[in-house]
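hey m, so remember when u said the tokens were messed up on ur end? i reran from scratch. heres the input so u can diff it against urs
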Amino acid sequence: MARRALLEITHEGGCHCGAVRFQVRAPARITVQDCNCSICRKTGFLHLIVDKAHFTLLKGHRGLATYRFNTGAAKHFFCKVCGIKSFYVPRSHPDGVSVNVRCLDPGTVKGTKVRKFNGADWEKAARGKKWAR
């Protein structure tokens, strides 16, 4: 039974206007991070971080704008039409993608466990973590 919970399925999602659409492979029961850094707090972003190989941008590549701040390591992608950031490449996982769980289409997520992450003090919170860069 525990093994079944870890099987990955395809979730789909996108921005508010539909100009940006993506697929992501992840379990039906997911663990997400609720980060309190300035941008995540203000946008309400809930992180589902996956390997780049598990993420596919279906449409909207040309409709994306990029925003970088602070160290410039993270690549925040926004829909040029509606302004929604449905995914980005995080500083903590430069070989991955963080999908905003709130941008997933309803129906495939069967459960969500939320973990708090102190991104407001990123360096301290990431210290000792193997993914911290």
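this time it looks ok to me. The helical segments are 2-6, 38-43, 122-126. if urs says something different then somethings off w ur setup not the seq
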